[in-house]
Design goal:
The chain has three helices and 16 strands. It is mainly β and about 240 residues long. The chain folds into two domains: about 70 residues, no CATH class; about 140 residues, Immunoglobulin-like (Sandwich). The strands form four sheets. Strands 8, 9, 10, 13, 14 and 15 form a six-stranded antiparallel beta sheet that branches.
């Protein structure tokens, strides 16, 4: 049974054609998406032109819907009606925002991967040398409206998973430090090319309507992109001789 219709966004689809590289024509089509008994209506723009087919999706819901996009994503992930879940309450005692709801919202917050820094710089290090690693990351503050109530999230990087590219790994609570502080180091035992990376695990605290801060019961791990590193051997060279 269809309980509610809600426009969820604009989907743009570009179809490859035999004409020029530019789009030669566009038209709109209406599509529906069924999720947990709710039917959500979207508008699809279909364009013909050259190049490979691509698809992109705009924010959900549309900017003129008046609903919090993060709240809508949270509602859909837990099987709730976004209009009922994200709209202002009609009065009386506001419904309880549970930690599970906040965790679902936390899992939809776009979080950045840490930027991996390596010393020595310029993508080269030496065999049997203490290569230094550290991650550039920071805390994030975000707010979302759940059940018509303001929920503030304070998100922090709390753990770092280091993969050094030679099979070795390490987990730390700190992001490492640049030289001369050598908090996270690794010695490569043979020359070659490796691709180390660092994964960042975020945890969060939250408060509802300015109340006390509470822990969000879960975490989110964001994988980091590999960084190319060449491990070299050093050859002693006589550079001067005095009589």
């Amino acid at each position: 049974m269809i309980r509610r219709l809600l426009a969820v966004g604009l989907i743009v689809v570009v179809l490859a054609g035999s004409g020029s590289a530019e789009a030669t024509g566009c038209h709109f089509e209406t599509v529906t998406h069924n999720l947990n008994g709710f039917v959500y209506v979207g508008v699809v723009e279909v364009c013909t032109g050259g190049g490979e087919g691509t698809t992109s999706v705009s924010d959900v819901p549309p900017t003129d819907s008046g609903l919090d996009p993060l709240c809508v994503s949270t509602a859909m992930s837990i099987g709730r009606d976004p209009v009922d879940f994200c709209a202002e309450p009609d009065g009386g005692t506001p419904p309880e925002v549970t930690p599970a709801m906040v965790l679902a919202a936390f899992q939809h917050v776009p979080l950045p991967a840490s930027v991996l820094e390596i010393q020595p710089p310029r993508g080269r290090t030496l065999v049997n040398f203490d290569t230094n690693f550290f991650a550039d990351s920071s805390s994030i503050d975000r707010s979302v409206t759940l059940l018509g109530q303001r929920v503030e999230l304070h998100i922090v990087p709390s753990q770092f998973g280091w993969q050094f590219g030679d099979g070795a790994s390490l987990a730390t609570d700190e992001p490492g430090s640049p030289y001369p502080d050598l908090d996270v180091t690794h010695r490569y035992l043979r020359k070659g090319r490796v691709a180390p990376s660092v994964d960042t695990t975020y945890t969060a605290t939250f408060r509802v309507n300015g109340g006390p801060w509470r822990d969000v019961p879960g975490s989110v791990t964001i994988p980091g992109a590999p960084v190319q590193l060449e491990v070299l051997t050093a050859t002693p060279t006589l550079v001067g001789y005095g009589s």
